[in-house]
């Protein structure tokens, strides 16, 4: 039945013959594999099986998330508990990518991130900070903490701000929550700087995943529920992008004035059907 | 000695002959009349006498502030205690201006403002809010309060956000503090809206002061320490603008790429000398 729906929406939309040349698949996680919520959330119907089918098909599969409320290890543990057979080394999240950047550029950050993300920075020198890093700190975004980050930033000869993602808001069981991008804009305005975004939709971030897959951009497809950060970001790197109608998807996404996905499908199961049919 | 300094800087800078046609003076308060700090701050040397001389000269004098951490009454009380002979009806601040707008447009605000400003809104209906108002709420800008304001805003059919000023930061005795504009930018990004700014540099706000003075813009001069919000804002309304080298003034202001004051003077006493000499 889902197969039929998928074929029908493919017929109605653009053909996905381009899938023939695809050798690798990058999957967004929240809103594609699972819905967040109480107790960590739950798998989206059919997605556990879909991930398994993609992996068994011989395609190279990687996972790409902007999750910054947890270490990558804890996050993967949660997904494994839901039934997903995922290994930590195949998951790309902003914090480990930022730690590499900090090391390469010999930067010492002032951190305004979620307490549960702190272990990612265990080996990072945070003395005499020469940059500021913000993640989705949620309740830790107090006036005092934000002001402290601002004072570090404005006190630098050349203020340098890193933001782990640039999301506006997300949905939790008790309603909408402000995301890190909102506080990035606040600090950008305060100090008249532009933040360096680490995570989707940064081209560097997608490129790291492609490097790990040993693929050229045109050989990979990104599947996500976020039209701008997943699909648009991947397309700017030369990849194809498919949007699923789960998670934060809204019908208005299909009429977006500047970003158009290479395919719209009902969910990851339908995306997998389309990929394996055309492969 | 100050007189000589003033004449000397006038000679070095542009001539201020245009002051001949000026019938009214609008004074910024913090940074021009007084410096904020512990115990409410202290008068800037010579400013109490300068205000008196301007008033005694027959010029129409009004005061214009973006202060939103206090009611107008409490604020004027503080200035009077410092020695300024100022009456409440001559002081224009954002909150009373906003209350008039809310009444005219029949709006019911969700308020995220300083506790000490709340009495300004005693007569305002805040049930079933159809807009959001933010002021310099300082410590009240917690994640929870900001998220609450965001949820009200995003829940409106047409999100409407008012900001009492748009300052980036200000200086207190214990260091720099984030101002309301930073949180305005945060909510603007979260909801993809543009805030209506009430207070300087809003043209409507300056026009209210001019109406009260019964003057045309070219008949009035604004004196302030903030190049963009005081001088630039007044100039965009057709007024002249003088910047004083006190308060938040920085030498780099005199080389600003887009805003140039009609005169730069050391302080309010020097500005008064120039006005009364040319008048």
Describe this structure in words.
2 copies of one chain form a homodimer. Chain A is of the alpha/beta class. Chain A has 2 domains: 2-67 and 78-91 and 200-278, HAD superfamily/HAD-like (Rossmann fold), CATH 3.40.50.1000; 95-198, Rossmann fold (3-Layer(aba) Sandwich). Helices cover 35% and strands 18% of the residues of chain A. The first copy, chain A, has 9 helices and 14 strands. In chain A, the strands form 4 sheets. A 6-stranded parallel sheet of chain A has the order 5-4-1-12-13-14, with helices on both faces. In chain A, a hairpin with a 6-residue loop joins β2 and β3 (42-43). The longest helix of chain A has 12 residues, at 143-154. Chain A is globular and about 55 Å long. Chain A starts with a helix and ends with a helix. Mean pLDDT of chain A is 93; it is low at 1-14. Chains A and B meet through α5, β10 and α6 of A and α5, β10 and α6 of B. Chains A, B: This is Phospholysine phosphohistidine inorganic pyrophosphate phosphatase. Chains A, B: One of its GO terms (cellular component) is nucleus. Chains A, B: It catalyses: diphosphate + H2O = 2 phosphate + H(+). Chains A, B: Keywords: Cytoplasm, Hydrolase, Magnesium, Metal-binding, Nucleus. Chains A, B: Phosphatase that hydrolyzes imidodiphosphate, 3-phosphohistidine and 6-phospholysine. Has broad substrate specificity and can also hydrolyze inorganic diphosphate, but with lower efficiency.
């Amino acid at each position: 039945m889902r197969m039929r729906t998928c074929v029908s929406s493919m017929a109605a939309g653009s053909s996905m013959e381009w899938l023939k040349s695809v050798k690798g698949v990058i999957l967004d996680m929240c809103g594609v594999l699972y819905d967040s919520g109480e107790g960590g959330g739950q798998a989206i119907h059919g997605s556990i099986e879909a991930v398994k089918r993609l992996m068994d098909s011989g395609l190279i599969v990687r996972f790409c998330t902007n999750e910054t409320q947890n270490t990558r290890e804890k996050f993967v543990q949660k997904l494994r508990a839901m039934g997903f057979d995922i290994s930590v080394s195949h998951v790309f999240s902003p914090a480990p990518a930022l730690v590499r950047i900090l090391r390469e550029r010999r930067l010492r950050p002032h951190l305004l991130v979620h307490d549960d993300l702190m272990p990612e920075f265990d080996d990072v020198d945070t003395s005499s900070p020469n940059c500021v890093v913000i993640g989705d700190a949620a309740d830790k975004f107090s006036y005092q903490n934000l002001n402290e980050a601002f004072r570090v930033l404005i006190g630098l000869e050349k203020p340098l701000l890193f933001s782990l993602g640039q999301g506006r808001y997300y949905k939790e069981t008790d309603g909408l929550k402000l995301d890190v991008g909102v506080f990035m804009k606040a600090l950008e305005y305060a100090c008249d700087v532009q933040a360096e975004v680490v995570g989707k939709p940064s081209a560097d971030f997608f490129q790291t995943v492609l490097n790990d897959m040993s693929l050229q951009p045109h050989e990979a497809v990104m599947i996500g529920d976020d039209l701008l950060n997943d699909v648009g970001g991947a397309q700017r790197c030369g990849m194809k992008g498919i949007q699923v109608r789960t998670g934060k998807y809204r019908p208005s996404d299909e009429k977006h004035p500047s970003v158009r996905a290479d395919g719209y499908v009902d969910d990851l199961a339908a995306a997998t059907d389309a990929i394996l049919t055309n492969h």
